[in-house]
Amino acid sequence: MIGAIAAPRVLGYQLGRNSRWCVQPGDHVLKGSPIAQGERWQHAAASGVVTSVSTLALIEVREDQQEVTMPPLDAETTSARALIERVQTAGIEGLGGAGYPTHLKLLAAIRHKVHTVVINAIECESGINCDKELARFHADNLLPALTALLRLPGIHQLTIACSPQSRPAITGKFEIRELPRIQPTDGEERRLLRTLFDVDIPRHALPVQAGYVVINLGTLFAISEALAGMALIRRLVTLTDGVRWVPIGVPIASLVSTPLFRSGGPLSGVVSSLAQNTAHAFVNKTTNAIFEVTPTPAFECIRCGRCDASCPEHLPVAQLLACAGAGQVARLSALKLESCIQCGLCNPVCPSHIDVLAGLRTGLVSLHEERQRKVQMQEALARSSRHVHRLAELERVQADRRAARLDRLRQDSSDD
Amino acid sequence: MTDHRSTRHVMLWVAGALMPALLTACYWFGWQVLVQAAVALAASVVTELICLRLRAAPLVALGDGSAMVTALLITMSLPPATPIGVTVAAVVLAIGLGKHAFGGLGQNLFNPAMVGYAMVLVSFPAALAAWPVPTDAVSGATLLDVMKHDQGRTLAELRLDPVSGGTGAWGFEWIAAASLAGGLLLMAKGLLAWRVSIGVLVTCGLLAITLHDGGSTNSLGTPVQQWFSGGLILAAFFVATDPVTHPRSHTAQWLFALVVGSTIMAIRGFGNYPDGIAFGILLGNACTPWLDRRWP
C-alpha cells in the first residue's frame, strides 16, 4: 500500500484560470465538496471552515472527516458527454506536471477526430516514482477509466506506454508498450509519439491535431476515481522518503524541513524558498515531487559548453542563458528557445552550479510576454484601423447627405 | 546528481596540467621561474580580493581558481628575469582590466592573462625579450628572433647554433613537450575544446609548410621548429582553450582557431615582434562574439 499524509491544520488553494470561487469566508465545507467552479474545478481535501478567499483560498481543517461524493457512473454505459462533464466537475487536470484541464483535452480529441489514446506511464525524470507506485499498487483501478476512454467517439486504439518498472499488470482491449531503457526525455509527449508511432509533431502543433491524445497514468487513475464519484482531492507525490498520497492544498512547509525545496524532479524541478510567498507554497494538482534542497553556491558561467552538449534539442544553451539574463527577447526567439522541452539535463552538468533551467524558464516567460504584447498590439492596430474606417464611412455618408441637400435646394430654387 | 567537475575542479586540473611545463621551465631557465610564479600568484590573490571588494561581489568567487590559472599563464609567458614590478603589473592588468572591468569571470571578452601579457609586452619590450640563452650570456635572442632577423645563415647552419635544440628552440622545446603532455591530459579528461587546440596547431603547421622554402637564408623554419618554439603549444592547449573567450559551436571553434593560428604565424613571419601568440589570441577573442552569433 501507498502511505498517505494526513491533512494538516490549514489547506491552501490557488484559483485556476477561467474559474471562480463558489465559497465565501466562514462557509463550512465538507471533504470533496467543490470550492471553485468553471474551467478548473477544485474541491476541499478535508472538511473545515473557509477562512479567506482571494486568489488563494484557505481552509482551516476541522475534525469531522465527512465526505461528499458524486453518484457513480458506469464505465460500460456512460456517454462521452457525461464522462467529459464528470472529468470537469471532478476537477481533473493533467497530473504529469502540465496541469492542462483533462476535459478540454478530451473535447479537443473529439473535435480533431483523434484515433489513438496514449497513456503515458514513462515517468522519465529519475527520482520521481508516482507512476511506478501507482502501476504497482492500483493497476486494477485503472480499468474503469480505460473502458470509458475507449467509448469516446472515434477512438479505436489505446496504448499504454510504460517502463519496465511502471508496467501495470492488467489486460484488456488495449496494448501495453514497454520501452526497455528510459532516457531522461523519453516521456515528453512529442518524443514519446515519435518513439511509439514514428510520427513527428512540430513544436507549434498539438498531438490531437495529428490524431493522438496523451494522458498521464495518474490522470487516468483520477478518471477512474471520478467515475466512482470521487473528486480529485489527493495525488501521489514523491517525497524524500518515498511516494505518498498527499491531499491537494497541503502547505509545502509541512512536507520539508529545509528552507529551500524543489517542486518536481531533480532535473526539471523548480527550486523555491519557503520564505517567498509564492504560488508554490501549497501542493497543487501538478506537484509530482517535493524534495528538500541544500543550497550550493553558484559561480559565474564560464561558457564551458557542457550545457550545449547536454541539450537533447541541440540548443545553444549557454548563449540562451546569457540572452535570457540580458532580456534579449528577439535573440532568444532567433536561437529557438521555444523548442526547449525543459528537461533540465543542462542543470547537473554545470560546473558553476548555475540553475540553467531556471534561467531558460525566465527566458521562456519573457518570450511568452513578448508574443502576447505583439498580439495585443495587432488587436489595437486592427481596432484603430476599424475606427478610421468608421470615421471615413461617416464622413462619406455625411458628404452624400450634404450633396443631396444641396441638390434639393438647387432644384427648389430652380422650381421657383 | 551534480557531478564533481565544478568550476574550481576544472581550474585545479588546468593548474595541475600546467605543472609539468612550469617545472620544465624551472629546470631549463632556473629557480627564478618559481619566484616569478610565487610573485604572480600572490599578486593575483590580492588583485582578485580588491576587485571583488570594489565590485561588491561575494568573496567566495576567490575560490573559483581562475585567478590562479591566470597567474600561472603569465608566469609561463614572461622571461624568468622579468623585473618583479613588470610581473606584478601584468597580473594586476590581467585580473583588473582583463577580467573584473568586464564584469568578472565569464563576462570577459579577452583572455585575462593575454591582456596583461600584451600590455606589458608593448610597454616593456626589452625586458620581455630577455630570455635565457644556452651560451654564457645571461639573455639574448631565441630561435624565433634568429630565424626572423639573422638572415645570413641557412636553416641547416642554424640547426648547429646552440639556440636550436633537438627539434625546436633550446629549452622551449622541452617546455612545449611538457605542455603537450599536460594539454593531452586535459583533452583526455574532456576539459578543453580539442578543436581549438588542434585547429591552432594545424593552422600554424600548414602555414609553416607554406612559408617554408626548403631552408634558405630566408627560411622561416619547419613546422616542427614553429611548434616547438616560443609558447605555441602552451597557448594552443591552455590559453586559446579558455572557454570564456572562445566560441561555442564546432564550426565557430575551427574558424576561431584559424584566426588565432594565422595571426600568430603572420606576426612570427612578418611582424615586428618575435612571437605573436598574445595578439593572435586577443584577435581571436575579439572575433568570438561575432562567431557565436553567426554560427550559434
Structural class given helices, strands, pairing of chain B? mainly alpha
Distance between the termini of chain A: 106 Å
Main sheet of chain B?
2 strands, antiparallel
How many beta-strand elements of chain B?
Answer: 2
Distance between the termini of chain B: 28 Å
Strand content of chain A: 15-25%
Give, in spatial order, the strands making up the sheet with the most strands of chain A: 1-7-6-3
Extract low-pLDDT stretches of chain B: none
Number of helices of chain B: 13
Oligomer status? heterodimer
Order of helices and strands of chain A: EEEEEEEHHEHHEEHEHEEEEEHHHH
* Topology order of chain B in helix (H) and strand (E) letters: HHHHHEEHHHHHHHH
- Main β-sheet of chain A: number of strands, strand sense, barrel status? 4 strands, antiparallel
Structural class of chain A: alpha+beta
Radius of gyration of chain B: 18 Å
- pLDDT averaged residue by residue of chain A: 89
Walk me through the topology:
The complex is a heterodimer of chains A (416) and B (296).
Chain A: E1 10-14, E2 19-21, E3 28-29, E4 34-38, E5 42-43, E6 48-53, E7 56-61, H1 80-89, H2 102-111, E8 116-121, H3 130-137, H4 143-150, E9 157-162, E10 175-178, H5 189-197, E11 212-216, H6 217-227, E12 234-239, E13 242-247, E14 260-263, E15 270-273, E16 290-293, H7 306-310, H8 317-326, H9 329-334, H10 356-415
Parallel strand pairs in A: 8-9, 8-11, 9-10
Antiparallel strand pairs in A: 1-7, 2-4, 3-6, 4-5, 6-7, 12-13, 14-15, 14-16
Helix pairs in contact in A: 1-2, 4-6, 8-10
Chain B: H1 7-29, H2 32-54, H3 66-77, H4 84-99, H5 112-123, E1 131-132, E2 139-140, H6 143-149, H7 155-160, H8 172-188, H9 194-211, H10 223-227, H11 232-239, H12 250-270, H13 277-294
Antiparallel strand pairs in B: 1-2
Helix pairs in contact in B: 1-3, 1-8, 2-3, 2-4, 3-4, 3-5, 4-5, 5-13, 8-11, 9-11, 9-12, 12-13
